[in-house]
Write a structure and sequence with these properties.
transmembrane helix, binds the ligand Nc1nc2c(c(=O)[nH]1)N[C@H]1C(S)=C(S)[C@@H](COP(=O)(O)O)O[C@H]1N2, 377 residues, OxRdtase_Mopterin-bd_sf, membrane, binds molybdenum atom, five-stranded mixed sheet, Mopterin_OxRdtase_euk, elongated, alpha+beta, 9 helices, Molybdopterin-dependent oxidoreductase
Length: 377
C-alpha cells in the first residue's frame, strides 16, 4: 500500500514539522533558562549579582516571561512528541555508539523536560505533591535540560539544516498522479501549535498583565485577596497573627550605634513616603500596588548605619521567607520602604501588618512580611 516515494515524502514532511516545532520549543527553553537563571542569581545569595533597583518593572517582566515561556513549552512539547512519537521506538533501539548517544540524550531530554514543565506548573498552582525542595531541584534540572538539548541539536544539525531548507509542498501527489489531501500537513501542525501556545499563554498571562485578567482562566493568582492583591501565605498559615497584632509589638533595629525600637504609633510618626511598586511572585503573578511607610535608609541612619550597607530584615514568623537580605543598591534606594499602608489603608494582616518590606525590582520572596527586626551591618 505504501510506496517508497510516499514514504520519502511523508518522512520529509515529518522531519520538517518536527524541526519547526522543535525550533519553537528550543526558543522557549532558552528563554525560560535565561530568565530562570536571572531569578536564581538575584536570590542566591542576595547581592552577589549586580541586579539593579531600576526599572521597577524589570523583574516583573523577566519572571513573567519565565513562566509564560514555560507554559508555552507545554503544548509545544506535546505536539513535538506527537510528531516524533513513532521514531522514538524505532529499531534498532540502540545500535552504533553515535546512535546510543543520540538515544540517551533524547531520553534525558524528554524526561527532564517533562519533569521541569510539570514541577513548574504545579509550583504555579502551589501544589507540591513531592518531597524535594522545589527551587533547588528545578534549578539543577534546568542545566540537565539545556545540556541534553545542546547535544540533541548538535546530533540533529544535519537534519535540521535540510529540513529548514526544504520548500513546503502545497499538496502531495500519489503514485497514480492523484492529489492526496495528506493528513496533517505542516501548516496545520504549525497553526495548531501556534493556537495551543496562544491559548495557554493568554489563559495565564492575566496574572501578570492586568488587561488580560478576565481571561486568565488557568491563572491561580489573578487578583483575589485583600486590597485586590494576591496573598501567597496568610498570617494564619504563617502562625503569626498573635505576634503581629499584639500591643507589645515593636520594630527593633540594630546597627553600629546600638539598638532602637519603635512601636506602631512611633513608626507612624516618622516621615512617611508613598511609592508605587509592583509585587512580583516568582510564580509569575504580579500586581501594581501603592505603598506608604518609612524609608529603610532612614531607619539605617537612625542606628548609625551606612546607607548602602546590606541589611537583614527579619519577620516575626519562622518560615522559609522569614529573613530577607536587602542588597546594597536596594537598601540605598529611597523607594525601599518598611510599608505600613497599602492603597491608602493600613496593611491587611495577610499582606504583612503591621510592617512589611517592599523594595523596587526584587522578587516577592524577598519582600518579607510581618517585620519584627532589622539588622544593619
Ligand atoms: N514573612 C513572610 N514574608 C513573605 C512570605 C512569607 O511566606 N513569609 N511570602 C513571600 C512571597 S513568596 C510573596 S510572593 C510575597 C507576597 O506578598 P503578598 O502576600 O502581600 O501579596 O510575600 C513574601 N513575603
Ligand atoms: Mo512568591
Amino acid at each position: 500500500m505504501t510506496s517508497a516515494v510516499e514514504t520519502d515524502e511523508s518522512e520529509g514532511e515529518r522531519r520538517a514539522r518536527a524541526t519547526r516545532v522543535g525550533l519553537a520549543l528550543a526558543t522557549c527553553f532558552a528563554t525560560c533558562f535565561v530568565t530562570g537563571l536571572l531569578s536564581h542569581w538575584i536570590q542566591h545569595p542576595p547581592g552577589w549579582f549586580a541586579w539593579p533597583s531600576t526599572p521597577v518593572w524589570l523583574y516583573r517582566t523577566t519572571q513573567g516571561v519565565h513562566v509564560l515561556s514555560g507554559i508555552a513549552a507545554i503544548p509545544l512539547l506535546l505536539i513535538k512528541l506527537g510528531v516524533v512519537y513513532r521514531k522514538l521506538f524505532e529499531r534498532p533501539l540502540i545500535g552504533s555508539p553515535v546512535r546510543l548517544i543520540e538515544r540517551l540524550s533524547i531520553a534525558v531530554l524528554v524526561s527532564a523536560s517533562i519533569f521541569q514543565l510539570l514541577t513548574g506548573l504545579l509550583n504555579i498552582a502551589q501544589w507540591y505533591p513531592w518531597r524535594f525542595f522545589f527551587t533547588t531541584t528545578h534549578h539543577a534540572m534546568a542545566y540537565i535540560v539545556i545540556g541534553a538539548l545542546l547535544v540533541h541539536v548538535a546530533v540533529k544539525l544535519p537534519i535540521i539544516r535540510v529540513a529548514l531548507g526544504e520548500a513546503e509542498p502545497e499538496q502531495t501527489v500519489d503514485d497514480n498522479g492523484r492529489r492526496r489531501p495528506g493528513g496533517l500537513d505542516r501548516r496545520t501542525v504549525l497553526l495548531g501549535a501556534g493556537g495551543a501556545v496562544a491559548v495557554a499563554v493568554v489563559a495565564f498571562a492575566g496574572q501578570t498583565v492586568p488587561a488580560l485578567r478576565r481571561v486568565a482562566v488557568f491563572a491561580p493568582r489573578s487578583g483575589a485577596g485583600p486590597a485586590g492583591l494576591p496573598v501567597n501565605r496568610t498570617a494564619e498559615q504563617a502562625q503569626v497573627t498573635v505576634a503581629a497584632t499584639s500591643d507589645s509589638y515593636r520594630l527593633a533595629v540594630s546597627g553600629p550605634a546600638g539598638d532602637v525600637s519603635w512601636d506602631l504609633a512611633a513608626l507612624r510618626a516618622l516621615p512617611q513616603h508613598t511609592e508605587s511598586l509592583p509585587i512580583t511572585c516568582v510564580e509569575g503573578w504580579s500586581a501594581d500596588a501603592v505603598w506608604s511607610g518609612v524609608r529603610l535608609r532612614d531607619l539605617v541612619r537612625a542606628v548609625g548605619g551606612t546607607v548602602g550597607a546590606p541589611v537583614r530584615v527579619i519577620s516575626l514568623e519562622r518560615g522559609p521567607y522569614a529573613v530577607s537580605t536587602v542588597p546594597s543598591s536596594h537598601a540605598a534606594d529611597p523607594r525601599t520602604l518598611l510599608a505600613l499602608r497599602l492603597h491608602g489603608a493600613d496593611l491587611d494582616i495577610d499582606h504583612g501588618f503591621p510592617v512589611r518590606l517592599i523594595a523596587p525590582n526584587l522578587p516577592g520572596v524577598m519582600q518579607t512580611k510581618w517585620v519584627g527586626r532589622i539588622e544593619v551591618s
